[in-house]
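Reviewers of the previous submission asked for a worked example of the structure-prediction workflow described in the proposal, so we include one complete record here. The input consisted solely of the amino acid sequence. No template or homolog information was supplied to the procedure at any stage.
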Amino acid sequence: MFRTAFAAAVIAATTLAMIANPADAQPRRIQVGTLTCSLSAGVGLIVGSQRNVNCLLKGQPGEPEEAYIGTMTRVGLDIGVTTGGAIIWAVFSDTNRYAGMLAGTYTGASAEVSVAAGLGANVLVGGSNRTVALQPLSVQGQIGLDIAAGIGQLELHPVR
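From that input alone, the workflow returned the following structure tokens.
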């Protein structure tokens, strides 16, 4: 059951992303780094949830790391309780990396399933003039009992 529910969540998130952002409408993007975020524990409130995030952008070797803080909000079905977790995204942009480039709001499809251990999928685009895409399927690990699907929003601010 867990695998079936997770597969359905991933398919739903991927389908929503393709409908919202057709491939021919996207500018050519290059990978500028990897964003690793830790999430606070969360409680699904049936119609949504919000979790704090602490993130670290790692670029190419020799480039400085950048720290970000923010919130991840989901609006849609969200029922359950989870411990903190982690998400890792490949970061793509249609421009070269620059300091603070991830600051902003990202929006897209989001889904997760947790029965003891859990996984999730997040399809997010945003940042500076919507020029940054976080890899279409992020890897999310957490522990709890939760099922969620809806529109996800990630807001990031540089740590100064």
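The two ends are 44 Å apart (CA to CA). We consider this example representative of the routine output the project will generate in years two and three.
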